[in-house]
Design a protein that fits this description.
It comes from marine sediment metagenome. The chain is mainly alpha-helical. 60% of the residues lie in helices and 6% in strands. It has helices spanning 29-36, 41-55, 69-85, 88-98, 109-119, 122-134, 140-148, 155-165, 168-173, 176-188, 194-202, 207-210, and strands spanning 4-10, 13-18.
Length: 211
């Protein structure tokens, strides 16, 4: 159901899946690699296994509950992961240099930087999109009209999201990304310090610990 997903396998290994059925663009790959890998989900799960399970024998931390307060913070951590490594300018430069299939045909670096900044705001859009779908009971036509109003996602992408929101497992999960990011930014500012981010990775944290 996801474009990218980290299946943590244990023993410090993850399987990160990329779903080719989704419309993807090379400018999103670095963000998603950080989100699912380092220093996002994979890093958090590895440190959780090492400290909580192996060192402290807190075996309950070997169970991942998808719809839980802990996952709100996990998704917030993953959403901020790329910004802990790179500035918007650095992300755009690396993506253009390493991931673009044809650099000569791409937008200017300045436009790519602006796109990268805008991408950090999309979690709010998807939160609102899910709210209109699940709470306000918008029709498919109303959702597509709302989605097109920001002129950022095409109809194909919007229809895929509508289909996902019809799945009970994903529909509840749709709110976690924005809520987690918002809680962390309210607590730490635009992003945590390195020490604060390390603390989030090492120690189980719930939303109530940060509010």
């Amino acid at each position: 159901k996801w474009a990218f997903y980290n299946w943590y396998l244990g023993n410090y290994h993850s399987r990160i899946e990329v779903n080719p059925k989704y419309t993807m663009h090379w400018t999103t790959f670095l963000f998603n690699a950080s989100h699912e890998g380092y220093p996002g989900h994979h890093t958090e799960f590895v440190l959780n296994e090492k400290r909580q399970v192996r060192e402290l024998n807190h075996f309950e931390h070997s169970i991942l509950i998808l719809h839980s307060p802990k996952m709100i913070i996990s998704e917030g951590i993953a959403n901020l992961a790329n910004s802990m490594l790179f500035s918007n300018k650095e992300s755009a430069e690396i993506s253009l240099r390493e991931l673009s299939p044809n650099v000569s045909e791409e937008e200017s670096l300045e436009k790519l930087i602006l796109q990268d900044k805008l991408r950090t705001k999309t979690s709010l859009f998807w939160y609102n999109f899910a709210y209109h779908s699940i709470v306000d009971k918008y029709s498919e036509e109303e959702l597509i009209q709302y989605g097109k109003s920001i002129e950022f996602f095409n109809e194909e992408v919007l229809k895929v999201e509508i289909k996902r929101l019809s799945n009970p497992a994903y529909s509840k999960n749709a709110f976690l990304y924005y809520l987690g990011t918002k809680i962390l930014k309210k607590k730490y500012g635009e992003k945590p310090s390195i020490k604060e981010f390390q603390n989030l990775l090492l120690n189980p944290t719930l939303p109530s610990d940060l509010i």
